[in-house]
Write a structure and sequence with these properties.
Layout: H1 2-30, H2 103-106, H3 108-126, H4 133-145, H5 150-167, H6 172-187, E1 205-210, H7 217-230, E2 235-240, H8 247-258, E3 261-264, H9 271-285, E4 289-294, H10 302-315, E5 323-329, H11 335-346, E6 351-355, H12 365-373, E7 377-381, E8 389-391, H13 394-402
Parallel strand pairs: 1-4, 1-5, 2-3, 2-4, 5-6, 6-7
Antiparallel strand pairs: 7-8
Length: 404
């Protein structure tokens, strides 16, 4: 009986414990969740300044303004900014060209270096003791090789044969004198070689420069401006070569060096219009001479040659041209004569300028081109220098040919 009671008591205790556990678990589920704890907020790192490392600034000792050392006077000196330096435009200096009188004489040494072969060759042949037919044929060959031309060569040889026969004995000095006289006669001492720049009625004198490509027209026009300025003339330059991009700039540079005004137009523009404006400005400025530089053109191009004729006609609406100078490259020899014929048909050539006569050119081209066109050589170019353009003087030229 006691066992039964004990078992009942144990069962009651067990059941009560189990019941308490069930009630406790239910209450735990119904309790509201506790409020969340406030998170720890960490301040973002300070933004670094220029030159600082990207890290959180450290605590530093701060000083008051009374503790900061200031420079004398209590305030920092104000920085005064200097105004920017403005570069002054470089004003081209006007050059004073050397006088033209006797310029070819001064350039004789340069001319003789390339031309002495003709004179020395002739003197050597004429100095032979016996002048037979073979020697005279050699003299003819020497003259033809020097681009003198067939007809002038035959005339010169004939006169030399007659004078040598009359002379009899031939000393070196006598031969030099004889050859000098005959060459001067062949070159033509009586031809009018003055560049016409003084019209009889009114100023300015008008000069047009023509020629094929590469003969040096623009350079010759610039050098001719120097020649005229050296003689006391005022000059206006007309850059009518509108096809070559650098032609107008080149001519303007030549003009600025001697104080000559340059009239130019747009690249690829009408050259006749530029030439017309140049003459117009020359009149308005009261200039003595207007030099018109035309574009180089092949003598075989009919359209370009017709355009050259148009430039001439347009200019003559102001006044007649006083000079039409044909620029020839002396090194082309007899080929230059073909060019000369065509240009003479399109525009009335009044004078010839031979350039590059200090190179491989033969001196005889002077004679040949004058015979071909019937107009004189008025200027010759003897180098690349600014003052290497000289008025042609027959006596000085022949003296350079035969040497001293």
């Amino acid at each position: 009986m006691e066992i039964v009671i004990l078992a009942v008591v144990i069962a009651v205790v067990v059941i009560g414990a189990l019941g308490g556990l069930v009630i406790g678990s239910r209450r735990k589920k119904q309790l509201p969740p506790p409020p969340p704890a406030a998170p720890d907020i960490t301040a973002p790192p300070a933004e670094p300044h220029v030159g600082d490392e990207a890290e959180t600034p450290r605590d530093e000792t701060r000083r008051t303004i009374e503790e900061v050392d200031l420079p004398d006077g209590g305030t920092a000196p104000a920085t005064v900014e200097e105004p920017p330096v403005v570069e002054e435009l470089e004003i081209p200096q006007i050059e004073v060209p050397e006088p033209t009188a006797g310029r070819l004489v001064r350039l004789r040494a340069r001319l003789s270096r390339s031309q002495n072969a003709l004179g020395k060759g002739l003197l050597t042949l004429l100095s032979r003791e016996h002048l037979d037919e073979d020697t005279w044929e050699e003299i003819e060959d020497t003259l033809l090789t020097a681009d003198v031309g067939v007809q002038p060569t035959q005339e010169l040889v004939e006169r030399l044969r007659e004078r040598v026969k009359v002379l009899g004995t031939r000393t070196p000095d006598e031969l030099r004198t004889l050859l000098r006289e005959e060459l001067i006669t062949l070159v033509g001492p009586d031809m009018d070689r003055e560049v016409k720049t003084e019209p009889p009625n009114s100023k300015p004198g008008i000069v047009m420069v023509v020629g094929v490509n590469g003969t040096g027209k623009t350079t010759t026009t610039g050098k001719l401006a120097r020649v005229l300025v050296a003689d006391g003339r005022s000059v206006v330059l007309g850059a009518a070569d509108t096809f070559r991009a650098a032609a107008a700039d080149q001519l303007q540079t030549w003009g600025e060096r001697v104080g000559a005004h340059t009239v130019r137009g747009p690249e690829g523009g009408d050259p006749a219009s530029v030439a017309f404006d140049a003459v117009k400005e020359g009149k308005e400025l009261g200039s003595d001479v207007v030099l018109i530089d035309t574009a180089g053109r092949l003598h075989t191009k009919t359209g370009l040659m017709d355009e050259l004729g148009k430039v001439k006609r347009v200019v003559e609406k102001h006044a007649p041209l006083d000079e039409v100078l044909l620029v020839l490259d002396a090194t082309t020899g007899q080929n230059g004569l073909i060019q000369a014929r065509v240009f003479a048909e399109v525009v009335d050539i009044t004078g010839i300028v031979l350039t590059k006569l200090d190179g491989t050119a033969k001196g005889g081209i002077v004679v040949a081109v004058q015979r071909e066109l019937g107009v004189p050589v008025k200027l010759i170019g003897l180098g690349e220098g600014a003052d290497d353009l000289a008025p042609f003087e027959p006596a000085a030229f022949v003296d350079a040919l035969i040497g001293e």
